[in-house]
Design a protein that fits this description.
Blueprint: E1 12-14, E2 17-24, E3 30-37, E4 45-50, H1 63-76, E5 78-83, E6 89-90, E7 93-94, H2 105-118, E8 124-129, H3 131-139, E9 145-151, H4 160-169, E10 173-178, H5 186-192, E11 200-204, H6 215-226, E12 242-244, H7 248-258
Parallel strand pairs: 4-5, 4-8, 8-9, 9-10, 10-11
Antiparallel strand pairs: 1-12, 2-3, 3-5, 6-7
């Protein structure tokens, strides 16, 4: 009986072409970014990742997006573009400017989409998480964007008018809503997303807002939608090159920042 392949663990890094980038916004800011591409082939799809609230620990290295960049180029031939919005810190560096409650961030979203378009990256999808879902809904409806996947959407900054604009576009939108989310749970989410008539609201059993322990489920759901030709569930073992990332700094920062996160009241 042959030996088992090594398991893909939380901090496993699979082979990819990874390039640190600087995105330039129309209002003059430089944003820290990274593009991860399949090592030996062209990508079949592209994720533009919009991270959670930076005032509560959200950044381009937040765990779902970090794992997407570590795994999806190798496992699914998907390109992953992630970046720190204005004023946001991570181990990768700090972006220029200051947090602007989703207003000035429209330039950040535009800069990322424009970069993906300029580089001829294929099949561009937005993947927002928490605050990033509001950015996607408010500022991400660009002609080159194929659709959006929303992780733990709070619908805190976005409005019904934003949902209606996406509805008019006809572009696919999937909301992955944790069963035990602190902000918006599945039954209420279905009501709130009603103006976005084509929205697919997917309850995620047992999950919480930060998706701790559920990253693999999320990555599979994303791949099924942006690259349906790729077999899922994705492999949990890997025979190719593997490295191990030191994620202690990311984890310490996130746990500390989210520990006392206030829960918004209804309507916020």
């Amino acid at each position: 009986m042959g030996a088992m392949s090594p398991a893909i663990r939380a901090n496993t890094v699979l082979a990819a072409r990874r390039e640190p980038l600087t995105l330039h916004t129309a209002d003059g800011l430089d944003l820290v970014a990274e593009l991860a591409l399949p090592e030996a082939r062209e990508p079949v799809a592209t994720l533009v990742c919009l991270h959670p609230l930076p005032t509560h620990g959200g950044m381009m290295d937040s765990q779902i997006f970090r794992k997407a960049a570590f795994r999806l180029p190798a496992l699914a031939a998907i390109a992953v573009l992630r970046f720190n919005t204005r004023g946001t810190w991570s181990e990768q560096g700090t972006s220029g400017g200051e947090f602007d409650n989703g207003v000035g961030e429209k330039y950040d979203v535009a800069a990322a989409i424009e970069y993906a378009e300029f580089e001829d990256l294929p099949n561009i999808w937005l993947v927002g998480w928490s605050f990033g879902t509001d950015l996607a809904l408010m500022h991400g409806l660009d002609p080159v964007v194929q659709g959006a996947i929303l992780l733990s959407p709070p619908l805190r900054y976005s409005t019904a008018a934003d949902l209606e604009r996406w509805a008019e576009s006809g572009k696919p939108v999937t909301a992955l809503v944790p069963e035990h989310d602190d902000y918006l749970q599945p039954d209420v989410a279905r009501e709130k997303f009603a103006p976005l008539t084509q929205a697919e609201v997917v309850p995620m059993s047992g999950a919480k807002h930060l998706w701790v322990g559920d990253a693999e489920k999320v990555l599979n759901e994303i791949v099924q939608r942006v690259a349906p030709e790729v077999d899922t569930p994705l492999p949990e073992e890997w025979d190719g090159p593997m490295e191990t990332a030191d994620t202690s700094a990311y984890n310490a920062h996130n746990l500390s920042a989210y520990k006392d996160t206030p829960v918004p009241q209804p309507g916020h």
